[in-house]
Amino acid sequence: MTRHLDRREFIQLAGLATAGVAGVVFSSGLRGVSFAAGKGRAEDFMFLQMSDLHWGFAGPAVNPDADGTLDKAIAHVNALPHQPDFIVFTGDLTHTTDDPQERRKRLAHVRDAVGKLKVKKQRYLAGEHDASLDRAEAFKEFFGETRYTFDHKGVHFIVLDNVSDPTGKLGDDQIQWLRADLAKHDKEAPIVVLTHRPLFDLAPDWDWATGDGSAAIEALMPYEYVTVFYGHIHQEHHQLTGHIPHHAAKGLMFPLPAPHSVPKKAPIPWDAANPYRGLGFRTIESQSGGDEYALTEQSVEKA
Amino acid sequence: MKRTIMVTIIVVLGAIGIATSWRRFATAAVPPGAEQVVHITAKRFEYTPSEITLKKGVPVILELTALDRDHGFKVPEFGIRADLKPGEVARVRIVPDHTGRFEFRCDVFCGDGHEDMAGEIVVVD
Questions:
Q1: What is the pLDDT of residues A4-26, one digit of tens each?
Q2: All domains of chain B, ordered by start, with CATH?
């Protein structure tokens, strides 16, 4: 018997997850597992989230192993005893560049690098570094559309693009598209939303927000089992908007400070005593028909 | 007659343009044209000037121009933002009602260095 987490319990769980406790389970909805378990509508499965690879970034004080961290993470994933059903990359696969040819070179490198993963079923999102200077033109050449949906073992996944518009908005057209897609689903359907930027105002003055993200959250609110996974902020973070949990993932190039913890946002310098600290990825186990997600944070430093 | 219509159109369009740029800080009763005008240019990844000193309670119009590509101008504490496009002048009216240092920054992603594109409004007594 599982029950709906209240806000205090959610925060406690978030603290456990941040402290590195493996397999912290977050409820995705208004009610608990017992509600949906009897319906037998979705199988349990595991997927993996990698984010903010920033391939092409150069800054030895921040990451002296900028060229090696991604391969290290890929080796770690390939060595997992249980391979995920699929892997999602939640944006900023590359670090931005003004040169369109260099942008394509970086995107091609990432495509080839992630091709070494044992798990071939992969889903990609763009970040503002990939897509905001050319409205995702180059990104689409290598990784396809920037907004789409897919279904996996009974869970409906919705990929939103809040980066192709350099102002960091979804836009009215995409919000209409989202509403139309949601309308095809039952209010009790398990839904996962994948984005790059947070949909809520985590720290708008640090560019940690989506200009019209509230419209997307409003559209999602009637749905009882919704969970959002995103990147962009280069750290683990957990927050509720109403009954909808939002989980940010660590990056794979440099960590960023906690929201408003310092006067000016800047990458956290490399810690030679703890190399790769703050870098990593996570596995996500969908349990109980998509009503709960067990998040396990994986560190590159342990690879 | 034509001239009257033209003048009316210009006045109406001007009023609409100013109304869309003037935000909640446009509260002081100052005759139009009496405000100080501060010109600011934006290019990757800087504003010129990057620091503007204003007097509390004195209305100012900021005239902003982008020199190279689209940029943004956002002052979170004032609830002000504007889109800056090359070849266009964005006007923002401010009547600062409290002293302090207030950051403004670009909120239209413009490349590597975008996150450092910022400046400050300093409001003094």
A1: 455 556 666 666 666 656 667 78
A2: 2-124 (2.60.40.420)
User: Which parts of B15-59 are beta strand (E)?
Assistant: 36-43, 46-48, 51-55
Query: What is the spatial distance between Cα A192 and Cα A229, in angstroms, rounded to a whole number?
Result: 7
Contact call for A97 and B112, based on CB within 8 A: yes
Domain annotation covers residue A248: yes
By the 8 A CB rule, do A252 and A53 touch?
yes
User: pLDDT tens, B60-91?
Assistant: 999 999 999 999 999 988 889 999 999 999 99
Say yes or no to pLDDT of A1 above 90: no
Residue A77 included in any domain: yes
List the CATH number of the domain containing A229: 3.60.21.10
Searching chain A, which residue's CA lies closest to the CA of residue B83?
A167
Q: How close is the nearest chain B Cα to the Cα of A182, in Å? A: 29
A/B interface, count of CB pairs below 8 Å = 31
The answer to whether A170 and A179 are in contact (CB under 8 A) is no
Residues of A with Cβ-Cβ distance to B107 under 8 angstroms: 167-168, 207
CB contact (8 A) between residue A133 and residue B109 = yes
Count of domains forming chain A: 1
Residues of A in contact with B103 (CB under 8 A): 205
* Enclosing domain of residue A94: 7-302
Locate A61 and state its tokens. 């004080």
